[in-house]
Amino acid sequence: MRTREQIIEFIQKRNAAIVASVDEDGFPNMKAMFVPRKIDGACFYFTTNTSSMRSQQFMKNPKASLYFYNKGRFKYEGIMLIGTMEVLQDDEIRKEIWRPGDTMYYKQGVIDPDYCVLKFTVIKGRHYCDLKSESFEFASLK
After folding, report:
1. Which of 49, 60, 38, 57 is nearest to 120 (CA)?
2. Predicted confidence (pLDDT) at residue 138 exceeds the cutoff of 90
3. Which of 14, 59, 61, 86 is 20 to 30 A from residue 49's alpha carbon, by CA?
4. What's the CA gap between 129 and 113, in Å, rounded?
5. Number of continuous H segments (helices) and E segments (strands) in the chain
6. At residue 1, does pLDDT exceed 70?
7. Phi, psi (deg, nearest 5) at residue 110
8. To the nearest whole number, what is the mean pLDDT of the chain?
9. Is the CB of residue 32 less than 8 Å from the CB of residue 21?
10. To the nearest 10°, the Cα dihedral for 52, 56, 62, 65?
11. How far apart are CA 83 and CA 22, in angstroms?
């Protein structure tokens, strides 16, 4: 089993995150997104459009899951995290997460009403590597 620090390091080396939300009929919906811009303890911060389907789903149902993986030539490793997702629109967090190139997506800059931050708080997860799977409580990891 990996430590919390090793899990975060693994995530930071990925190019994408698979983010899952729940639709109005209770079905999972998945989407590839850029990796988290910030990781603080058990909280992972992403950016997206306020008007996006994903943001709207999280506003109605905060249950979420993230998946990160690495497929090597001889080894596959994956980490699934389960938790809740909040859609944040306060200026402080939007300014903190903002990057200069974001104007390509949000023409009005950091104050664009269609710019929001998704805050994922992990509760538990599952790690797969070398033909072994193991569940874990995130708060219990060292």
Report:
1. 38
2. yes
3. 14
4. 41
5. 3, 8
6. no
7. -60, -20
8. 95
9. no
10. -30
11. 12
Say if CB 42 and CB 104 are below 8 A apart: no
Rg (CA), the chain: 16
Structural tokens at position 19: 């983010």
The single-letter DSSP state of residue 110 is G
CA angle, residues 32, 36, 38, in degrees to nearest 5: 170
pLDDT digits (tens, 9 = 90+) for 33-91: 999 999 999 999 999 999 999 999 999 999 999 999 999 888 899 999 999 999 999 99
Give residue for tokens 């190139």: 101
pLDDT score at 15: 95
Locate 56 and state its tokens: 């709207």
Q: pTM above 0.90? A: yes
Tokens in use for 22? 């729940």
* Model confidence at 2: pLDDT above 90: no
DSSP H helices, the chain, are 4-12, 53-60, 91-97
